[in-house]
Amino acid sequence: MTLFTEPVLRRALTAACAERDLPVQNARLVHHYSNAVYVLPTVDVVVRLTTSRRTSQLLDVTQAAVAHLVHDHAFPATAPLDGCPPVRLPEGISASFWRYYPQPSAGRPFTSADLATLLHQFHTVSMPDAELPVWQPLTSLREELARDQPPHGLTPDEASWLRSTADDVAQQVLENTWALGIGPIHADAWTGNLLWDGDQPILGDWDNLAIGPGEVDLIPTWHAAVRYGRDHTWTRDFVDTYGYDLATDPSFDLLLRMRDLVQLTGPLRRAAESRQHLAVLRQRFDAIRADNRTARWVAL
Question: How far is CA 90 from CA 15, 20, 27, 144, 229, in A?
């Protein structure tokens, strides 16, 4: 497994930018979790680096679909850089290139209503369904657990239990029926993936864009209330704006279990090089295995 360390990321960034004739001078790392995000300030470009095999394979399709959203539907989304296709590097890292949106140093935080507005609009947009992949639950986590090296921070018994649990939950999700139907989904729709474009909230991080059940885009809002301490107004405002109360859905508990497991992927990828991520991995894993449905989690 490629370690997502700063030297590895810098080498990958330099190689990818050389392929696309983009300057790396003064490039700065602005996000480093499941993916790494760099800003190239001299050309107002964002470079996203990922080690996910699935994300790498789908980058061309994803960027074309997001460009369709932005240009054909004027949907408020982060825009891929025109004429700059993704780069795949020998180290197993892939790079994609996006427009840079400078963020204000101060201002109001994003709300669940901001997210609900964007998702309601997105879920009603006509997309080229045939070109998008079919969503598969827990793909990134199961990919991490299938690597040759044992996952750092988990014992062999714990890793075996997690593989079995992820497989079981994924199978239950695949066999489920969905009240909101099947269509284009973002598949990681939480307020941390919102940005400002002037005074307009826009939706970013399109790595998981797919065709799947609409409920998948709603569960992060309720998960934020359960695991990260958002109060009742967080979900109430989402319901008032989007028009659907996921808490009344028969699939709610299954979706919460799935989202819990999703939240292991980032810490698992970085536990080998970061004590902070290792501690978060242990906190989340221990709560999941103990079936503690109410434990508050540390956010990263």
Answer: 10, 16, 22, 19, 41
Q: At what angle do helices 156-175 and 252-262 cross, to 10 degrees?
A: 140
| Degrees to nearest 5, angle at CA 47 with 46 and 52 | 140
How far is it, in rounded angstroms, from Cα 115 to Cα 217? Answer: 10
How many Cβ atoms from other residues are within 10 Å of residue 200's Cβ? 11
pLDDT band at 131 (very low <50, low <70, confident <90, very high): confident
On the question of pLDDT at 2 being above 90, the answer is no
Those residues whose C-beta lies under 8 Å from the C-beta of residue 274, and which sit 6 or more positions away, are none
3-state class (DSSP) for residue 270: helix
Taking the C-alpha atoms of residue 280 and residue 300, their distance in angstroms, rounded to an integer, is 8
Identify whether the C-beta of residue 130 lies closer than 8 Å to the C-beta of residue 24: no
Domains of the chain: 1-100 (3.30.200.20), 107-300 (3.90.1200.10)
Which residue, chain included where needed, has tokens 């999703």?
262
Cβ within 8 Å of residue 280, ≥6 positions away: 267, 297, 298, 300
Contacts with 243 (C-beta within 8 Å, 6 or more apart), sequence order: 120
CA-based nearest residue to 184, from 244, 237, 127, 254 = 127
Name the nearest CA neighbour of 141 among 166, 178, 122. 166
Sequence-distant (6+) residues with CB within 8 A of 33 are 266, 270, 300
Residue 98 pLDDT = 98
For residue 115, give the nearest of 210, 46, 217 by alpha carbon. 217
Taking the C-alpha atoms of residue 93 and residue 87, their distance in angstroms, rounded to an integer, is 9
The pTM of this model reads 0.94
Element spanning 87, H or E: strand 87-88
240 φ, ψ to 5°?
Answer: -60, -35
